[in-house]
Specification:
The protein has 361 residues and is an all-alpha fold. The protein has 15 helices and no strands.
Length: 361
């Protein structure tokens, strides 16, 4: 579905994100003053909130591009629902409820007790979260890897950025289950590098991640097929919405866990990552309305390469700690290179058209 281009400025798209930034940082400063009672403590919490917001933006820019790719085919009603309900689920569900749910399951305590634990014993709360990192990384890494591979293993894909890889992947995409076989091979490799219970946990979590991807694809296909049978205009509805929510959750895993390296305060993490999530929403809207993916043909490729890199990093993090700054910069660098390649292609096309019009070719 093609969106009419708008004349909204960059500042117009970022209006609500800027408001969320001001409110969030103010809340962070108040929280810092209440918990430490000092100017230094207040400034420290203020700074951590700002750093977490930047971390979330850097880790999730590829998320915004993938969201825009899916949203452009959704009806305006479902676009609006995702950009309103979806952002509420992303901010409150993944940044607050998800970490609490992990503690509830891991510690075997109630939700209220988990909130009390986060407020009164942040060190213990952080310890439980860190212990849950392995299954989360295996689950999220597997889901994201399937997302990335499904994009490249597509026989209908005829635009290639890094042709040496993409042409072969497109050619062999007709082999049924090739993406699943590739992921399962990696799961076996990484599980062999772990020992005992950790290896079993990795395999089981990765299997659940794979099954979740297949289930979301199945549900999305069934829902969209039934909607298409009713009316062509209803396509890209609930199925796409569910897919984007699970995708956002997978992207959020790394940011939520990585945030505990900066602070053990759940509420500070929620503020910082919540601010970042608002910018991801703003970027998604801008990419859809400006039809940026149409104008920059390789930008989407860069995002899916970044997804594949992130999925591998999540696997590697089960063995070694990788600083979040490397993860964020890696994804941003790939997207930057894709943007640069797109600009070069556009200039070359413009020059070719100019030469044709002048009769030079």
């Amino acid at each position: 579905m093609n969106q009419p281009q708008t004349h909204t400025t960059l500042l117009g798209y970022l209006k609500w994100s800027i408001i969320a930034t001001v409110v969030g940082l103010a809340l962070g400063a108040v929280l810092g003053w209440q918990t430490t009672g000092s100017i230094g403590g207040m400034l420290t919490v203020f700074f951590i909130c700002a750093v977490l917001a930047v971390l979330e933006i850097s880790l999730s820019f590829d998320n915004a591009i993938v969201n825009a790719n899916k949203l452009k085919d959704m009806t305006p009603v479902w676009q609006h629902r995702f950009l309103t309900w979806g952002i509420l689920i992303a901010v409150f569900g993944m940044r607050i409820v998800f970490p609490l749910l992990i503690v509830v399951i891991a510690a075997g305590i109630g939700p209220i007790d988990a909130v009390v634990l986060a407020a009164a014993q942040p060190e213990e709360y952080a310890r439980i979260m860190n212990e849950a990192h392995l299954p989360i990384a295996a689950f999220g890494g597997t889901f994201l890897m399937m997302v990335g591979l499904t994009y490249f293993f597509n026989h209908e894909k005829d635009v290639h950025w890094i042709s040496v890889f993409e042409k072969y992947m497109s050619r062999y995409s007709t082999i049924k289950g090739i993406e699943i076989a590739f992921v399962l091979l990696l799961v076996l490799v990484f599980s062999s590098l772990l020992e005992g219970e950790e290896s079993d946990t990795f395999v089981m979590s990765a299997i659940y991640g794979l099954l979740t991807f297949l289930a979301v694809e199945l549900i999305g296909g069934l829902l969209d097929a039934s909607q298409q049978a009713m009316t062509e205009a209803a396509r890209g509805g609930l199925g796409a919405f569910i897919y984007l929510e699970v995708l956002d959750a997978s992207f959020s895993f790394d940011g939520v866990i990585g945030a505990f390296a900066l602070t053990q305060n759940l509420f500070v993490i929620a503020i910082g990552l919540g601010i970042g999530a608002m910018y991801v929403r703003s970027m998604t809207i801008m990419l859809v309305e400006k039809e940026t993916l149409t104008h920059y043909r390789y930008l989407e490729h860069g995002a899916f390469y970044a997804i594949l890199i992130l999925s591998v990093i999540m696997y590697v993090q089960t063995l070694y700690h990788i600083p979040e700054v490397i993860t964020g910069l890696g994804g941003a660098s790939l997207i930057g290179l894709a943007l640069w390649s797109s600009i070069r292609y556009n200039r070359a096309e413009q020059q070719r058209e100019t030469d044709l019009s002048r009769g030079h070719i």
